[in-house]
Amino acid sequence: MPPRYVRVHPRDNVAIIVNPEGLPAGTRFSDGLVLREFLPQAHKVALRDIEEGEAVIRYGHPIGYATRRLAAGSWVREELVQLPPPPPLDELPLATATPPPLPPLEGWTFEGYRNADGSVGTKNLLGIATTVQCVAPTVEYAVRRIQNEILPRYPNVDGVVALTHLYGCGVAIEAPGAEIPIRTLRHLCRHPNLGGDALLVSLGCEKLQPERLLADPRLPLLDAPPYVIRLQDAELRGFGDMVAAILRAAEKRLEELNARRRVPCPASELVVGLQCGGSDAFSGVTANPAVGYAADLLVRAGATVLFSEVTEVRDAIHLLTPRAINEQVARDLIREMRWYDEYLARGGADRSANPTPGNKRGGLVNVVEKALGSVAKAGTTAIMAVATHGERVRAKGLVFAATPASDFICGTTQLASMNLHVFTTGEGSPYGLALVPVIKVSSRTALAERWPDLIDLDAGRIATGEATIEQVGWDLFRLILEVASGRKKTWADHWGLHNALALFNPAPVT
Ligand code: CA
User: Fold this and answer.
1) Could you tell me if 287 and 353 lie in one domain?
2) What value, to the nearest 5°, has the Cα angle with vertex 314 and ends 312 and 316?
3) Which partner from 37, 98, 145, 324 sits 20 to 30 angstroms from 454, CA to CA?
């Protein structure tokens, strides 16, 4: 491959190296730029002389300020770029540049499972939820028995999932913030891929009582829907009885689930959650813009698209509040940013805690650069609504659903709403979720080639010029419909790679 760099925006004074092995000092590019030192792939080269204190510009925006003079052709490393302050939240433009609607895309469908509550599933799973960690091993034991002894008789059911977690007791359940894990778990229990209902296993003495979780005064109901099994109840004598009760309820629920069939559904029934993990400097020029293009296609088809990860949006918030559909939605965005600023400050941290060693190895100097690349996932359409942590999204179109950026916490929180997940990665992660298919998109071809049995779609072809953002965006859109229909399996589902649920609990533990 001839020496190649990618500049994203005409104003940029830095660009990233494309060549997989990096490029040595003395390399001359076709425009005459000469490298003054070795540069690894994905790291930034100064395209012209940048004076001390001058803005380092990528994506057309400052990602920081040069700590000393940077000559053209030199490596713009992390320590040479000073982190700028975040955009102030009290002087942001509100809905001043709301994008007009794009032309609708009609006729795109997938085969999904319709639920009584109007939601649509992309899988047909038996879910067994838990109110507290104490019961998790018992539920996992029962799940193994169900998989081996009962499930083979119900061929239309895709699997059994234990919704176990660390929450439920030893927590300040009335403290501010406790509503977040409880609300998230409530929506997980009613996930569309569980047919809108999970069995629930409770211990009995825990803080998170089934009535509080499901807000149903009839609970617990051992032998009638929604089947709440409380292990400390007097009628259950010993472990054998507990497991038998779970198996009995599971059999009844499996009979219902087994009668379900996939039916054609408009693409507007999709709720696609987007996130990135193990990002690199390519994420913002290949995978995330391609996902953004697919996000626009989904929005045009009437679907719901969630983008999240507050700390990776915070530094690009000035680009997002103008895109809100109205001033209230812009103010809701600011509310979520402010809440997270205060949450981090309580922990003695700020958004500079975000980039990981892997992000930095991948060429990202700081959270501003990461954020500018991250928001490319959100495409170009108007932001229609904002959901706070763990809220079930009802709106159509592009929605900001607040979550931490942590991969497993973001995924778990998005599960309150989504029926399909798209995950972009540069450094690579074998991440997956049991409840929804996870499509993994790589930002570089080298990763897709090293992990051909983990990466579902390679967006690295955009950097090498073999494909355009539009082509990869359409590839992803079609892949989403295939996966949602159960016609194509993601690699994570093929291998059964399903990360643990991780509820976001900002409230104290006792
Ligand atoms: Ca993430």
Assistant:
1) yes
2) 90
3) 145
